[in-house]
Design a protein that fits this description.
By secondary structure, the chain is of the alpha/beta class. It has three domains: 30 residues; 39 residues, no CATH class; 274 residues, no CATH class. It contains 13 helices and 14 strands. The strands form four sheets. The chain has an eight-stranded mixed beta sheet, with helices on both faces. A hairpin with a 2-residue loop joins strand 9 and strand 10. Helix 5 runs parallel beside helix 7 and helix 9 crosses helix 11. The N and C termini lie far apart (77 Å). The relative contact order is 0.12.
Length: 381
């Protein structure tokens, strides 16, 4: 009798669960965007004869059910921690490290680093501009003491040496792998929940650039600033892209710091050109994003094809060819240049050579994470 009662109870609970989930699917409002996962969710596909015939309806409906599952974040998080308990550390390509640090797994060793560095070197030689390469090491390499047991090896040190040896002497290489790895402050150089560097990490990189790169030709009166040159504002409650991928929801949020240069505050003018759209701002910090989930967008409003910064200072005109790591360091670089023209080759499809002539560019800097230098298919000129 007891076994029959237990079986009936399980059947009733399961049936009730399916019934309730079905009602929730029907009546709960559908979300267009997931703040946790930082992506747009699938919507219900349109039913038509052609969509059924070619299979796109069934695939779209499957994605819709997966994305619009009631309490989806809860179930994804439970699964992530369940896998962790089983000994599988790494949810959707992200390790859960010590102190709740979320660390992206290393990228594929079979990559395009040689091809991309060769293209950069050839383009710099063609332009004849004073050029530099700044490669940002991964958090897993710099903060290896935070990695869980049996984590894969990070080869940023080897990649950095390969970059250094592949670049000709006329291109300055800023080696941040050694700079960051040996720093006693390295734990503060990256967000806990995001793969990007913090403002403090970007400032450490800027000091390395200042020490190794700047000459009178690029700055009239260059001095390496200290932390005292900045007013720092702190905003709490930032969950980054690593958090969005892994969904380890017990992880504590990060703080976002805005380092406001006391000497250049209020002098900069920013123009963002994205297709036919143009946005102007009197600040490099877009504070409207501080109240949103992805607070990293506060730095120059995120990814755009072309961004022009008139700094209000003296100096050369810099072409900064970059990925999203540059957004956080640009406010530091602004004190050393008259104008900074930033392009993201993932989105900028116009003629770069023509841009150099139009903007009277004097210097060129390539600033990428080592991962993007090794994996990008968009480094084309």
């Amino acid at each position: 009798m007891k076994n029959k009662f237990g079986t009936k109870l399980i059947i009733c609970v399961f049936t009730a669960f399916i019934f309730v989930m079905g009602l929730l699917y029907i009546f709960m409002p559908k979300n267009e965007f997931s703040e946790t996962e930082k992506r747009y969710l699938a919507t219900a596909p349109k039913l038509s004869f052609s969509s059924v015939k070619d299979g796109s309806f069934s695939k779209g409906f499957e994605n819709f059910l997966a994305d619009q599952t009631p309490m989806r974040t809860f179930f994804v998080s439970v699964n992530a921690y369940f896998e962790l308990i089983k000994g599988n550390n790494g949810s959707n390509g992200v390790y859960l490290g010590k102190d709740g640090t979320l660390i992206e797994k290393p990228f594929d060793r079979d990559n395009r680093l040689d091809i991309n560095i060769g293209r950069i070197a050839a383009f710099a030689k063609e332009t004849g501009l004073r050029s530099s390469v700044v490669a940002v090491p991964s958090k897993g390499y710099v903060c290896s003491d935070k990695l869980p047991k049996n984590a894969m090896d990070y080869l940023d040190g080897q990649y950095s040496e390969k970059i250094k040896s592949a670049l000709p002497g006329n291109i300055k290489y800023i080696d941040l792998t050694t700079e960051f790895k040996n720093s006693p402050d390295r734990d503060r150089y990256f967000y806990r929940t995001d793969h990007h560097w913090t403002s403090e990490g970007a400032f450490a990189a800027y000091r390395a650039i200042s020490r190794d790169l700047f000459l009178p030709v690029s700055s009239v009166m260059h001095t390496v600033p200290s932390k005292d040159n900045y007013k720092i504002e702190t905003v709490k409650g930032f969950y980054g892209t690593s958090y969005a991928k892994a969904c380890y929801t017990l992880t504590k949020p990060d703080d976002v710091e805005l380092w406001l240069d006391k000497e250049t505050l209020g002098k900069a003018k920013v123009t963002i050109i994205d297709g036919k759209d143009e946005i102007s701002s009197g600040s490099m910090f877009f504070r409207n994003h501080l109240s949103e989930g992805d607070k990293y967008l506060t730095f120059l409003d995120g990814n755009h094809p072309l961004v022009k910064i008139e700094t209000g200072n003296e100096g050369a005109n810099l072409l900064l060819i970059k990925d999203s790591f540059a957004h956080c360091i640009a406010p530091f670089l602004a004190r050393d240049y008259a104008n900074i023209i930033m392009i993201d080759l993932r989105y900028y499809k116009s003629n770069v050579r023509q841009l150099i002539e139009e903007e009277d560019i004097n210097e060129m800097m390539f600033l990428y994470s080592i991962e993007n230098l090794a994996t990008s298919r968009d480094i084309l000129f």
